[in-house]
Amino acid sequence: MAILVTGGAGYIGSVTVELLVQRGERVIVLDNLGRGHRAALPEGVPFYRGEAGDRDLVARIAREHDLEACIHFAALAYVGESVEQPLRYYVNNSAQAMMLIESLLEAGVRQFVFSSTCAVYGEPETVPIPEDHPRRPANPYGWSKYFVEQVLESCDRAHGLRFVALRYFNAAGATDRCGEDHDPETHLIPNVLAVALGKLPFLPIFGHDYPTHDGTAVRDYIHVSDLADAHLRALVWLRQGGHSLFLNLGNGKGYSVLEVVRTAREVTGREIPTRWEARRPGDPSHLVADARRARRILGWEPRHPELASIIETAWRWRLAHPDGYPKDPAR
Ligand code: UFG
User: Fold this and answer.
1) Mind giving me the DSSP string for 106-161?
2) Distance from the alpha carbon of residue 254 to the mean position of ligand 1, in angstroms
3) Is the pLDDT of residue 330 over 80?
4) Whose Cα sits closest to atom 4 in ligand 1?
5) How far, in Å, from the CA of 82 to the mean position of ligand 1?
6) At 154, is the pLDDT very low, low, confident or very high (cuts 50, 70, 90)?
7) CATH number, domain at 14?
8) What is the average pLDDT score of the chain?
9) How many CB atoms lie within 10 A of CB 187?
């Protein structure tokens, strides 16, 4: 049986596809290549270009392959952009996911792994954040994912859909083959490395007056391979008849923007100039995971818990791919 991976040409999706293929899983990728890269996919993986919410296309994929489960990555994921263009996020992330789920249920597929986010929590009341922390998203991106979590719960009750919603904290790092290449790039670590490479003149630091130890925002950076491993474990959990779950994925340790810059200077040996700028709208101050549930239930154990090792893998990929992936001629 096959696993449908939507957004499999994206950053976290491609690393997960790589792992699934290595483990002998049959993988089908559906991606609109809006922000993904054809070159990020391993050779030989069946690929469909289109929207995750395209009912006819998903029905056709289900007819052409014997689908067992779906891992749904395809989404837009920029907090700032979601504040400026909320409808784009609700349509792309919420409405498309609902149509995908509907098509899968019609095709008899009842196992679903969902890319959720710590942005569902908003500004936290307690840190580290457990899964039962109130969900009060601080931006449309977080809401767009939270809506889908609600839909999944309802479909579990009504239709027996079994899901694992993985609430990622800040994905970072690279494998030898797959790395982070977004256009536009807004994420901290790739931008820090772009400055180190001389592709950007300086790193803007958004906000110096957060209630954190050095005034800059704190995040829990988690290696993309550790995220991929959690997806595989979630799939196995569902395959073995496990019930639906919401799980945080993070290392449980927060680093401020200044600490990330300092570590990147050590890893790269480059100067990395910075410039203070105003806070970015929609950014919470402090997001750190309590990820004990994923460890306990899935037996998940991050293999790159150290920030320096996460940045090192991202730097190695950047040095090998200074211009990112080869551009897809069909784009
Ligand atoms: N930052 C800078 N300068 C930059 C880029 C980022 O100071 O050039 C700061 C941001 O303001 C934020 C921190 O670095 O405080 C991390 O920013 P990222 O853009 O790397 O990540 P976010 O925390 O905003 O967003 C990420 C993912 C989302 C996810 C979210 C949860 O992109 O998908 O984490 O907070 F939902």
Assistant:
1) HTT--EEEEEEEGGGS-S-SSSSBPTTS----SSHHHHHHHHHHHHHHHHHHHH--
2) 13
3) no
4) 188
5) 13
6) very high
7) 3.40.50.720
8) 96
9) 15
- From the candidates 89, 141, 210, 221, give the one annotated as an active-site residue: 141
Nearest residue by C-alpha to atom 24 in ligand 1:
79
List the domain range (segments joined by +) for residue 28.
Answer: 2-169+223-250
Domain assignment present for 48: yes
Average pLDDT in the 171-185 region? 93
Q: Which structure tokens are listed for 143?
A: 């809401």
What are residue 67's DSSP bridge partners?
2
Reported as type and span, the H/E element at residue 231 is helix 224-239
Find the mean pLDDT for residues 248-261. 98
Q: Does 311 map to a domain?
A: no
Rounded to an integer, what is the distance from CA 284 to the centroid of its chain? 18
Q: Please report whether residue 183 resides in a domain.
A: no
pLDDT tens digits, residue range 9-18?
999 999 999 9
pTM (predicted TM-score): 0.97
* Model confidence band, residue 182 (pLDDT cutoffs 50, 70, 90): confident
Left (φ > 0), alpha (ψ -120 to 50) or beta: where does 198 sit?
Answer: left
Residue the block writes with tokens 């609430």 = 167
Q: Is residue 144 in a domain?
A: yes
141 is a catalytic site residue: yes
Percentage of the chain beyond pLDDT 70 is: 99
Domain count, the chain: 1
Residue of 35, 257, 279, 307 to mutate, ligand 1, most atoms within 8 A of C-beta: 257
Residue 327 has pLDDT above 90, yes or no: no
Measuring CA to CA, how many Å separate 309 from each of 98, 221, 314? 37, 11, 9
